[in-house]
Design goal:
It is a single chain. The chain is an all-alpha fold. The protein folds into two domains: 40 residues, no CATH class; 97 residues, no CATH class. The chain has seven helices and no strands. Helix 3 packs across helix 7. The protein is elongated, with a radius of gyration of 28 Å.
Length: 145
Amino acid sequence: MSDDNNGDGGMSDLKAEGSFGSRDDESDPYRDQRQQAEQADDEAVDPLEDMVDSLTEIRDGDGTLSIGCRDDTFAAYLNHLQAHPERMEAVAEELRNKLEHPPNVDTSQKASIIRLLLRVGLQEGASDEYELIGDANAEYAKRNP
């Protein structure tokens, strides 16, 4: 080996000639993605705490109680149910029977049917999320007697 490479196998020459920057180099094309991933790791969200915070905000009057979606088929279905109260009552009863903890709702309101549909959908389709909602309500009640 020659003394020209300072005993590092020529690495110092390669480093001097290299076009790659350090992780902190402004020219690093992945710098922003890397920083966002590191920040996300540092700020991992606790879903329960996030839900309790959201419930607090809404129940303190600082958030909206309304939810909405645009769907012509379900809008027509809800209009149909509203035009036929006996059918709306039957649908509401069927949905309530599927729930572990059914809420008391006014079955003459489309909003009540939507609430029941959301609850049944979460309970049956995403049970962990449905459980999160119950846990968040329980935790909120503990903190706000």
